[in-house]
């Protein structure tokens, strides 16, 4: 059985980033991955401009009690005139600073009458001026290849005039659920059957990472049904996630089905709880990750082992999200022969380590623990953990993104 950290590294290293680049309109680029490093095409802001509604003045022209004639009303988008000595130009937030002006006086600190403005309180030299290039300098690196484009990155790229961006193709993911006991939600359910929750769950998890889930298939526990599903999935997808049927039972037929079509098993069983029977294989040049059927096991394996593999295939640079540390709040001690991942809720305060409270039922079939948990607490196999132990915390908002 493979050590957890080795397995995590092995899955990410088993695949490669894409070698194809395509162009995507910026307004559709949310969640896409940059395929080239991008640089600033212009200074931002492109010209000195006002941070306030007010008046542009030359600081040295101020004399207490003496109104300055208003030379021009210059709105955002207008070109200002050069400021004449001893005058003021009325301007607004975003108006360009006139040549010769060095300071903006907020309108609240002025009184305007008869086309002249009286300054009641003079700010410091240079006040309320946003200088050309103070935000971004032309030529500076904006984002490195491998960056996921979210609203913040899209804002910067739009401000730089990018209408389209070079991105990697969206990763095409296929999901295969297996098991004779499963029925599709909405279909009639026999007494011995359960609804298939792993299919919709894995599809949503994969989409949450920004991949395209092109197929969600179900196979019965027969070699024929599995072979037909693999035909479809390996034909249409870049990577296949199977779930169930990878343990040691008599109907655990997924691994044999992969081997029957000439595929190879690269890894089977990891020293982790839940998730032990996870397998990595490849067939027809495509990676296949076989997740254990228990819903919690599938969820935890997806977060901890599958996401680094998918991020690598997406061409992302953030393969392993950061982990935090937290303090366990528990009435019982945990000690296993496998690295254990508990579903916990984290509570943050300003000064201390986060407090991590485990869900009462940690069984790998307890689906209700999934929406409840904010993250996973890792209990080291070497030491175990108890009330007050400081353990590693995997925040799911990072690990599932
Ligand atoms: N004798 C042993 N038995 C088991 C071992 C073992 O080492 N020796 N490992 C256990 C562990 S750990 C896990 S995890 C499970 C994983 O087994 P499989 O991956 O073969 O999964 P299944 O047997 O097909 O299903 C397990 C469980 O999950 C339910 N399931 C499966 N698919 C779905 C789905 N799409 N939606 C909802 N629920 C699903 C299934 O009904 C079973 O209850 O094996 C242990 N056994
Ligand atoms: O992975 Mo299994 O869930 O350890 O129960």
UniProtKB/TrEMBL annotation:
Q: Which pathway does UniProt place it in?
A: Cofactor biosynthesis; molybdopterin biosynthesis
Q: Which domain of life is it from?
A: Bacteria
Q: Where is the MoaB/Mog domain?
A: 174-312
> One GO molecular-function annotation for this sequence?
molybdopterin molybdotransferase activity
Q: Kindly state one GO CC term assigned in the UniProt record.
A: cytosol
Q: Which GO terms describe its biological process?
A: Mo-molybdopterin cofactor biosynthetic process
* Database matches in InterPro entries: MoaB/Mog-like_dom_sf (IPR036425), MoaB/Mog_dom (IPR001453), MoCF_biosynth_CS (IPR008284), MoeA-like (IPR038987), MoeA_C_domain_IV (IPR005111), MoeA_C_domain_IV_sf (IPR036688), MoeA_linker/N (IPR005110), MoeA_linker/N_sf (IPR036135)
Q: Keywords for this entry?
A: Magnesium, Metal-binding, Molybdenum, Molybdenum cofactor biosynthesis, Transferase
Give EC number(s), comma-separated.
2.10.1.1
> Which reactions are catalysed by this chain?
adenylyl-molybdopterin + molybdate = Mo-molybdopterin + AMP + H(+)
Name the cofactor(s) required for activity, per the record: Mg(2+)
Query: Short name of one Pfam family for this protein?
Result: MoeA_C
What family does the database annotate?
Belongs to the MoeA family.
Give a short account of what the protein does. Catalyzes the insertion of molybdate into adenylated molybdopterin with the concomitant release of AMP.
Q: What is this protein called?
A: Molybdopterin molybdenumtransferase
């Amino acid at each position: 059985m493979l050590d957890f950290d080795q397995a995590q590294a092995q899955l990410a290293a088993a695949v490669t980033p894409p070698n194809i680049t395509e162009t995507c309109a910026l307004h559709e680029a949310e969640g896409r991955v940059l395929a080239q490093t991008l640089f600033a095409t212009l200074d931002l802001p492109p010209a000195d401009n006002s941070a306030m509604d007010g008046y542009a003045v030359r600081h040295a022209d101020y004399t207490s009690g003496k109104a300055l004639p208003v030379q021009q009303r210059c709105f955002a988008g207008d070109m200002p005139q050069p400021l004449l000595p001893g005058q003021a130009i009325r301007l607004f937030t975003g108006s360009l600073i006139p040549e010769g002006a060095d300071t903006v006086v907020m309108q609240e600190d002025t009184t305007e009458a008869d086309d002249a403005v009286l300054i009641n309180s003079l700010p410091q030299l240079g006040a309320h001026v946003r200088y050309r290039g103070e935000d971004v300098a032309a030529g500076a690196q904006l984002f490195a290849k491998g960056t996921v484009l979210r609203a913040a990155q899209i804002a910067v790229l739009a401000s730089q005039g990018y209408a389209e961006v070079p991105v990697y193709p969206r990763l095409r993911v296929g999901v295969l659920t297996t098991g004779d006991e499963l029925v599709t939600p909405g279909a009639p359910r026999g007494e011995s059957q359960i609804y298939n929750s792993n299919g919709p769950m894995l599809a949503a998890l994969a989409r949450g990472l920004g991949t395209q889930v092109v197929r969600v298939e179900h196979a019965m526990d027969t070699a024929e049904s599995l072979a037909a599903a693999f035909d479809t999935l390996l034909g249409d997808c870049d990577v296949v996630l199977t779930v169930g049927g990878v343990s040691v039972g008599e109907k655990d037929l997924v691994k044999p089905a992969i081997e029957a079509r000439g595929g190879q098993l690269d890894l089977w069983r990891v020293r982790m709880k839940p998730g032990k029977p996870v397998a990595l294989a490849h067939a027809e040049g495509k990676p296949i990750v076989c997740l254990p059927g228990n819903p919690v096991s599938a969820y935890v394996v997806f977060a901890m082992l599958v996401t680094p593999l998918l991020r690598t295939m997406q061409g992302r640079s953030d393969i392993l999200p950061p982990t935090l540390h937290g303090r366990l709040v528990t009435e019982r001690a945990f000690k296993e022969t496998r690295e254990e991942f508990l579903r916990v809720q984290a509570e943050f305060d300003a000064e201390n380590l986060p407090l991590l409270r485990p869900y009462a039922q940690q069984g790998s079939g307890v689906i209700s623990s999934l929406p409840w948990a904010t993250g996973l607490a890792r209990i080291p196999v070497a030491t175990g953990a108890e009330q007050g132990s400081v353990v590693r915390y995997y925040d799911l908002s990072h690990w599932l993104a």
